Amino acid sequence: xxxxxxxxxxxxxxxxxxxxxxxxxxxxxxxxxxxxxxxxxxxxxxxxxxxxxxxxxxxxxxxxxxxxxxxxxxxxxxxxxxxxxxxxxxxxxxxxxxxxxxxxxxxxxxxxxxxxxxxxxxxxxxxxxxxxxxxxxxxxxxxxxxxxxxxxxxxxxxxxxxxxxxxxxxxxxx
Length: 174
Hints:
With 174 residues, the chain is an alpha/beta fold. The protein has 7 helices and 6 strands, in the order ααβαβαβαβαβαβ. Strand 1 (42-45), helix 3 and strand 2 (71-74) form a beta-alpha-beta unit.
């Protein structure tokens, strides 16, 4: 659908009547909101944007002084490659989200050069696949570890144990 076609729909009315009339914002509208409120924009991108699209994103981030706060997340190393070529170390960082990291995925990330970036370089492992071996493998390659999709019933002690194991960040889809 084109953006004009999408504007014909009122997607927000399904959530609550107070949102009636809410329209899908343009990416630039989102960046304006981030700049106004202090939110830090993060892209979870599947599939990869082209290098030209990333350059347009970079122009908008610069316009709104958001470049150092921007973070890119993807499910395959190739998804992050164009972003790294465009942004280098000028953004907050890069995250590869995986279920259970493989040596091949980590080697692909190293080949891109993200492991030597001066910004954050994170491998995000789905919670149920986190163990001493997966954390050690990720940390040995120069990346930090994030736990992804923690169970909603986790006690504080679970988080403490994961931090003691070497998990540096926690992310959630919900």
